[in-house]
Prior knowledge:
The structure holds 2 protein chains of 2 kinds. Chain A is built from 11 helices and 9 strands.
Amino acid sequence: MSRVADVIAAKRAAGGEVLVGYLPIGFPDLDASVEAAVALIENGVDVLEFGIPYSDPVMDGPVIQAATTAALANGFKLRHAFEAVRRVTERVDAPVLLMTYWNPVLQYGVDRFADDLAAAGGAGLITPDLIPDEAGDWLAASDRTGLDRVFLAAPTSSDERLRRAIELSRGFVYAVSTMGITGARADLDVAARTLVGRLRDAGAESVCVGIGVSTPEQVREINGYADGAIVGSALVKSLADGGPSAAGALAASLSHGPSGH
Amino acid sequence: MALRDQTGPYFGDFGGRFVPESLVQAIDEIAEAYDLAKLDPTFQHELAELGRTYSGRPSIITEVPRFAEHAGGARVILKREDLNHTGSHKINNVLGQALLTKRLGKTRVIAETGAGQHGVATATAAALFGMDCVIYMGEVDTERQALNVARMRLLGAEVIPVKSGSRTLKDAINEAMRDWVANVESTMYIFGTVAGPHPFPEMVRDFQKIIGEEARAQVLELTGELPTAVAAAVGGGSNAIGIFHAFLDDPTVALYGFEAGGEGADTPRHAATITKGRPGVLHGARSYLLQDEDGQTIESHSISAGLDYPGVGPEHAWLSAIGRASYRPVTDTAAMDALLLLSRTEGIIPAIESAHALAGAIELGRELGPDATILVNLSGRGDKDMETAGTWFGLFDEQNGTAE
Ligand SMILES: Cc1ncc(COP(=O)(O)O)c(C=O)c1O
């Protein structure tokens, strides 16, 4: 089974809404990113998506690009990712997934990366530029270590590709709400609802929707048809503007819904 | 299997499709359309006609004996891609992909560009076919290739200077991919070199391989023999694979790719990807790249905007790994010396990119001696580089042409 899927299923069985929160490791520095991650989890984030800064983040919009560029300029190294995961999981209970472009994992060694992530208490990986077709080594390493693996599903993915993403994902399937890169958007696409419907029809049990989600209303709306909502840029922006406490406050408002109770 | 028959997605351990899921449908669509087009006589005829009546194919070859005196007395023959419409080999690929765009029914094209030659070629095709066109170009490159920025704008394209990262070709590709992810339904990404996810490395190669096919026949006709060696500059690798491909299964013909050695391949400031890099994933494919121990891409440096890229196409990585082609670095200084030499001995001003191949040919000629024949891909003309050359050689103001 999967730690992430268990947490999501338990929260939903209890009638709750699921919030997945993204922050980059090392922004504004390593300590503050750990504090911010803990603040997110203490304020209602159910699953943490901790991002590894990368030099060429083709899926990311300006907010996350600026943060990960700053983290790299501040001296982020790959080993800090395992340290950050360990420090967060020692303090709070929520599962922590790493979000990483593929080359850092490849250079570290896929098996070594999986072992070190598991040893640090990490739950698994979200891989934005690794499609199942190219993931042979990671499928084997995650099976061996029991780590979760989250593949993406896009509005343009064929039915066959959706089935494959569902079959090979563990934890949840990441439904890309809209065609585009990360960044807050006022209106979430109907594409998201349609995509989740298609994933359900193909047998998906755990689907979270991300890209462009930024408001409590959107989180609630998505939880009406999917198993969870993923918020990234909005949290990163609040961290950039107001530090860990501001990110925690935004997490609280996102997870407590539009009415704020 | 003949080396020439190798197709994507994999060239040995290299290639593949390391892309966001959001792009898979688009690259599948291109691969399918291209597989049909490849076998479709109408498509091939249209493309050949564009070459014949628009871009100027076949390009000629020119033997350069006064230049060759400096290359150990070997015979040196240039394949004149600089004479193509728009001034480089890039138009060969762009016309192919633009025809494919028409077939796909898409009305907007985007492209990355380094030296601006691919951007100019794409803007040209967009004007010819009535398509909207957006070109991403690193801010550093918009400055050092300002003439080409003006050409693109004159042709009706929107040029977006990219301010992230190293502000060069790598970052222009990142930004073009972000645009593509968001606009994939209306937009074709006309990729400019033999890198990127499948099918680009194979497709761009196929559109460029005419260079070597023509040159092989032209050299045979001129000399009665195959050349001893073929030399080309390697950025992403499209002009090099274009001239190499026809010779892949001619074992007597040595193939040399010349990478940008910048201030020296043993300094941190170069773009010698195969010489100094390690296998990794960048921009959709597994190939060699310049990276640190964490897999972060290292910024490249070259006086040549078109070679200033920390990656390289997967087919080159494979040709290097199996020992079929050799890759060597050429410094900024050696390239600029060769640019000056060709200008002064033959009256041909090459692009700085192509000057890397010329510098390589000088080195090869001295190694191979007077019995050798070296075919060099003169991938582009140097008009776009006058600002850089003027500064390098002190050609402006009172300095009064003291280049020597
Ligand atoms: C004239 C010329 N030659 C070579 C190159 C390098 O590209 P490639 O290695 O794909 O041929 C460029 C790229 O801009 C160019 O303009």
